[in-house]
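G., the chain you wanted modeled:
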Amino acid sequence: MIAMPDTPADTPADTPSARLQIRQLTSLGEREIAGLSDVLIDCVQGGASVSFMLPMTRDKAHRYWHGVAASTQRGERLVFVAEDERCRIIGTVQVVLQQPENQPHRGDVSKMLVHRQARRLGAGAQLLVAAERGALAAGKTLLVLDTASDSAERLYRRQGWQFCGVIPDYALMPDGACCATTVFYKALAPHAPWAPAA
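Predicted structure as tokens:
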């Protein structure tokens, strides 16, 4: 699931958002894992339903990101980060490429996270654009995601994602309360780039 703050739809060149750098990580070193762990811990402690429960420890975060690093090295996912002017990671998103063999065209957008101190700077919108472009370059023409965040829903609607529906009692919030999730999809290209086997 995805937890995202509100992000401006338009970003003038002189705003803090224009100073953000969006970068794809082809490998995750210890510096990146430390920064990504900071973001994940902050979001979970702030109430984001993104697969983790309180208490959210650094050990849990490190183990998760080391797993992501291994998956990235195997070519199973794309990882993007947003960095501020001091090169600190303040946000991230993933595209999970590995899917069943009958869904070669589909990817899942996952773990869209922005640190609470860096919200409302446009990082979420920029990360989402990077994820969509990266997925299309990887041959994916359909993306799917779900979110338990009202502000994330507004972002996805602004970015042209299509609302599918709400699943009640889908997961738990970090404090143990039940929450629903809202499912969205986006077609990135009108036609699939593959052909069925003869």
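The chain has one domain: 16-187.

Shout if anything looks off.
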